[in-house]
Fold:
Amino acid sequence: MQKIYMDALNKLKSNMDKTGNSNYVSYAKVVTLAVMNMRYEKIAFNKKLNDHPYVLTKNIIEDALNMFNAMSDSSFIESGKTIEKTKSREKELKHQLLFNEMWNRYNREEFEGYVDRYVYRININNLSDLIKDKDCIDLGCGNGVFCFALLKCGAKHAVGIDFGENSILFAQEVAKEKSLQQRSNFVTTSVYNTTLETDSFDFAVQNGVFHHLDDYEKAIVEAKRILRTGGWFWYYTDGEGGISYDLWDTSVEILRDVPGDFIQKILEAMSISRNKIVHLTDGLSATYAHTSWDAITSVLSKHGFGNFKRLTGGFDTDFDLDKIQSDPYGKEKFGEGDLRILCQLVEK
Ligand SMILES: C[S@@+](CC[C@H](N)C(=O)[O-])C[C@H]1O[C@@H](n2cnc3c(N)ncnc32)[C@H](O)[C@@H]1O
Structure:
């Protein structure tokens, strides 16, 4: 069946593009797109749909169009202020600014819950033997969440690097509070050139980072350089082909001039949970490159990685293989799904 929702999605984009970026209209765009994407999640995770998901998706896009038209029709009441545009459309700079203002907003209780999600992921995939007493590195660590999970799972030492200074400061602060400074190190640097020593890690993680890069292969080469032969790589990247990718990608395109901070503040005012705020702000602002299992494992193989295994996310909101296979519309909804790959550096 054809993706019959695409015409409605293109119409929503063209209507939103025509209306400019005053405060009121930008607010209307953010709320409308947040609602549309969250309503789609309800479709995505319902295995007993009464209709084809393409039809249901078209309906929620048409609702979004009506909602936005009603809001922009009443925009004459605003004083006419235009929001400050996002500081850069240049992809990587935009991401640096966006994530730097995102990861440091967790309070300690929320953060601990977030760390435990990763501990759970490590455990359900039986990875503790690859981590216990090992030297680990997290490439694009954000606030260090995965590093703290690795340390909880017995890593000897964990290094987290990220080009977001505020995120690194947050991680350093947490390490200090947890008295983990001896077992961790958080550094502001780029995944393309980490400045870390060659052959110094047994376990590397890139968790949702390389799909945001202009040149992910260059980052794979750097990961290979710092990993020891026989070391393992947790490689999590976005799949391709599902409905949600179309909705999120179009939303990002529509909101290209709206700063992430503006989006976050609206969602915070709506009392949405921190994890959902992060999920929505990221989904509405960050650019993703999509790929397939075959394409990405072939690039990794070219750089000496092998022994590929598909991992599970373990949560209801993850697009895991079992979820895709057990849903009559799994392929349409999730495409390739979340690609959580474990692989080993078999040769340098
Ligand atoms: C989606 S977040 C994921 C954060 C973390 N890995 C996690 O799982 O929570 C992507 C992270 O990659 C970082 N990042 C993106 N491009 C980078 C680059 N070229 N060098 C270093 N960090 C980068 C961003 O600052 C951001 O913190």
About this structure: The two ends are 45 Å apart (CA to CA). Residues 92, 95-96, 99, 103, 140-142, 145-146, 162-164, 167, 190-192, 207-209, 212-213, 282 surround S-adenosylmethionine (CB under 6 Å). Residues 6-83+243-285 form one domain. The chain has two domains: 6-83+243-285, 99-240+290-345.
